[in-house]
Known about the structure:
Layout: H1 2-5, H2 9-27, H3 32-47, H4 51-69, H5 74-89, H6 93-111, H7 116-131, H8 135-153, H9 158-173, H10 177-189
Amino acid sequence: MAYSKNGNNYEAINYMEKALSLYENSYGDDHKYVASCHHQLGNFLVNLGKYEKAIESFYRSLHSYIQKYGELYPEVASIYSSISTTFSKMENHDEAIDNMRKSIALKKSIYGDTDREIAVGYSHLSNIYKSAKNMSKALEYSNKALTTAKVALGEDHPDVAVFYYNLGKFLRDRGQYDTAAKNFSHSYSI
């Protein structure tokens, strides 16, 4: 990972593939180390714009985690989110939405309906709908993200300020300046 953080994703991939091979030979395909390597490898591939290969790696990770721990495992939800983000970068909005919905559904089953993780998922879903030019759905999920964050974290939490700010930006970009200003004001007051 240090290579990736320094911008050398090719070297990171090289070492990750070596680690993956060692883990597969030592532990088999369904071990958490193998699943984790596939997930990290997918992230490195996304950084290089190799989205199809990243998706393949994410699905391998997903399969390993589900085989080992079942569907209701936090890392499974995280991988669905990674798959969603990758499909979004590929402008395959339907797949991005479908995978983000899976991530949110799993997180709800694991954490409950009013956890910060659910708010973050709604925010991601809002961004996907914005990219897909479905502004009514984008607004709906931006509001859901804010509402969920306020319940999960309390009105004065710094993360809630970010949700207010993001909603303000969305509204400003849509020409709803007065409402945007109110959201910016809430954000700055926290």
